[in-house]
What we know:
Helix content is 53%, strand content 16%. By secondary structure, the chain is α+β, with helices and mostly antiparallel strands. Strands 4, 5, 6, 7, 8 and 9 form a six-stranded antiparallel sheet that branches. Strands 3-2-10 form a three-stranded antiparallel sheet.
Amino acid sequence: xxxxxxxxxxxxxxxxxDNRVQWEYVNQKGFDFANDNQLSAAxxxxxxxxxxxxxxxxxxxxxxxxxxxxxxxxxxxxxxxxVTGDDSDVAAVYSDIADYIWDNSNGETLLSNAINDCVTxxxxxxxxxxxxxxxxxMGEVVIxxxxxxxxxxxxxxxxxxxxxxxYILIRKILPxxxxxxxxxxxxxxxxxxxxxxxSYENYSEKATDNEQHDFHFKEMDSNNAVYSEKExxxxxxxxxxxxxxxxxxxxxxxxxxxxxxxxxxxxxAKRQTEKMRQEMIVEFKEKQQQMExxxxxxxxxxxxxxxxxxxxxxxxxxxxxxxxxxxxxxxxQENSKTENKVVTEKEYNILIKNENFKKTLLDAIKFHETxxxxxxxxxxxxxxxxxxxxxxxxxxxxxxxxxxxxxxxxAVSPLIGKQRELNKAHxxxxxxxxxxxxxxxxxxxxxxxTDYWEKYSSSPGALLPKRQGFEAPTPVMPFQLNNAFFxxxxxxxxDMEYLAGVYxxxxxxxxxxxxxxxxxxxxxxEYGTRRIKYWLxxxxxxxxxxxxxxxKDYSQxxxxxxxxxxxxxxxMEQEKNVEINVPLYNxxxxxxxxxxxxxxxxxxxxxxxxxxxxVNRWAYLSELKELMNLGVVxxxxxxxxxxxxxxESIVKRKSLYAQxxxxxxxxxxxxxxxxxxxxxxxxxxxxxxxxxxxxxxxxEVNKQKEATKSNLLKEELESKAKQKHMRNTMxxxxxxxxxxxxxxxxxxxxxx
Length: 752
């Protein structure tokens, strides 16, 4: 046996502790009770010898089925959150990839089997691995479901998901022919491997109670007609997963620019230096002119001027050289790229020997990272040993009742005692009733014909002869059972419901909720499932989240090439295509990058809480109807949650009806607007007519008014003219009168 195989076998022998043996024995018994295998061969034989019934009243199977239903009513759903904004777009693809892997692996069935193992055997497992031959050698991430009794965990583990375990083993016993089918490239090594038959003995026999001995599932027969005699030899297949700390180096180094870029840098530095030279020459001439003025004014000696000018020229040359070097270095730094890579310490030790790389190295930080090492052993040979691209064990446990050790408790274990009590009570009651209906007789030997009595003693109206001289046979009546004994079975049923947390009302028992209103039934459904929700929240959902993280790590390591996933939607009528790692090309047809680079994206994964729980459809539809009446959702959202056939066509028709309805409503709205416009125009016309008539009346009134004014003015003018004429007439008459009087006076005077 080679060293690695010896190490794995030593780990396995260490794992076969007495606690492990007892745990497997107890949970195998629970698994048998859940599958109605509740009587051992010795118990069955003893009951048959006593004439008692051997039937069982299985109250465990309904509990197991209800727990399985609550935990697997819907498929789990995961959600990814990108670390940065660039990762958010790629993170949105993760949910689709997880659904693809789940459907491709038939995850619904595997999860159901794992939950069933969790309930009946206290623990179930899901294994995330890679099928390298799938997709024509490109590989696919797949999910498998190992048997919990084939898995051996480090006994010192105290984490609910075994993240602190030093190792996890999966051990199977298979014929060589089967192993060759699993590993066709290792046929020669498998055929050369030798087996140790002593290690295949069923170690469950160490248990003190062997009543379940006839139900051992590990007993195998090496006589298999499928394979040849040599291929029928049994071998151990052990897959050992171990956590190892690997030293890594986080290095930062620069990538210098290429020759063409360096040439451009030198030309740019030369151009900027020449520009600086011209500026400094102008400044030098200005200083020289100032010094010449100072010399002419005899404020400076000519010799001092020559010395200062010589120093200035030397300073200018030095500054120009320094400026040229500074500009060139600055441009080189701007055009140099700083890269960050993570390599193993061994790779770093090889790289650091290269002088060119050593010059570009900026910093190197050493750290350790946990990685999973998988070693596969067949018999005494090691098939392979490799590192997996994940940080946690790909084997994820589902516990029912965590005990702080790798040996949890199942949901069936507390019910076994009550189940035996119910079986015994029913067996005794049926046996007592059987004795009461078929009497036993006490007789003297020779007093009766025993064959005749055995044949006709229980027949209705039978005449049973008795020989003379003997006493008549005496019937032996069975003892009457205590009345409290009959209530024992009913109390036992209630105790089992209380222990399991699954009541009759949760299984549709109409007698339990005969007079309860609808909302009261919903409240009972909410309160009655709190224990189950606690189990899902603290045991199942953490395991599902762990599976999501492992799927993320595996998928990022496997799906590095351009790939298109086809996902069938739940309604089976639509398909969704998801594309990742889409190559991007430049104008010359060279790949320069990837769109939706899935392998390099960084995001966190979380499971959507309660995604596997069942939904009370009637209550959900009732809530949707209320929301639709409030206007929160539309009728299409309500239709999507119903079981009506051809929902898509109904939605399309509804959309057509909605379009026509919207068109009709639009036309009606337009008609209303037109009617409103017409009414407005009519009112405006009437108002304009009224205004015209009022204006006409005003014109007539004004006309009459003006006419009256003109008549009055004319009359007034005429009156004034008449008055003036009269005044003129009176004036002329008075003048004439005066003149006449004067003439008369003058005539009288002359007469005198």
